[in-house]
Design goal:
Shape: elongated
Number of helices: 7
Distance between the termini: 60 Å
Number of strands: 0
Helix content: over 70%
Order of helices and strands: HHHHHHH
Strand content: under 5%
Structural class: mainly alpha
Length: about 220
């Protein structure tokens, strides 16, 4: 025996090797796991003592900032280097919402942020998540530019509220949060519009396919 595969010896086509799937322990997933671990750390730092110590709030801000930075990089790395996994698809949005929700709720508990602001943002995020599942059989609602700007505004506003700011900066962060709330509502309404359009188009395709099958059956 020559040890040469038969396909190579005869000049025939070689079998195509299976595409290597990204493993669980890749850099994108590790960053997502770090962000999940930062959620309880962030809460403990922010709520340490009476929750108003500037030093501990600075530590909490650092944890929050790191979480926001990992959010930017893990998705980019997953797409750039084909590191998308089922774990990442599930854990990444959970980590995003967990860090933001924990910040909003803690700030409201400390009376730094009105509860209605927290309620509006969390209601929007939960509603959009449920809406994605509502239309998933008809298609996927892509992340919009407005949605990305909204996320940036929310992260900036919550980060500023976590810090112990005074004077003009305290006033400025109120306006940043106001912009974040407006973007939250506007982009939420746009997602609702997209979901309705997507579902109607999907139902129309299903009805057309049903009519086509019925006509074929009649023939």
């Amino acid at each position: 025996m020559s040890g040469v595969p038969a396909s190579a010896a005869t000049g025939g086509p070689r079998p195509v090797s299976a595409v290597r799937q990204a493993g669980l322990w890749n850099i994108a997933n590790v960053l997502t796991m770090v962000r999940l671990l930062l959620v309880p750390a962030f809460v403990l730092l922010l709520m340490h003592g009476d929750g108003y110590d500037p030093m501990w709030r600075s530590f909490a801000w650092a944890a929050f900032a790191i979480a926001m930075i990992t959010d930017v990089f893990d998705g980019h790395l997953a797409r750039q280097y084909n590191l998308v996994t089922d774990f990442g698809k599930i854990a990444d949005p959970i980590a995003d919402k967990a860090i933001m929700a924990s910040g909003l709720i803690c700030l409201s508990v400390l009376d730094d942020l009105p509860w209605w602001v927290t309620a509006v943002i969390l209601f929007r995020e939960l509603g959009i998540t449920l809406m994605r599942f509502w239309v998933i059989k008809h298609g996927v609602i892509p992340a919009s530019r407005g949605g990305k700007i909204k996320t940036l505004a929310q992260g900036t506003a919550v980060g500023m509220y976590v810090l112990a700011l005074n004077g003009a900066l305290a006033t400025f962060r109120w306006w940043v949060m106001a912009v974040a709330v407006v973007l939250t509502v506007v982009t939420g309404l746009d997602y609702v519009r997209q979901a309705v359009v997507l579902r109607r188009a999907g139902l129309a395709r299903e009805r057309a396919a049903a009519r086509e099958r019925a006509e074929r059956g009649a023939v």
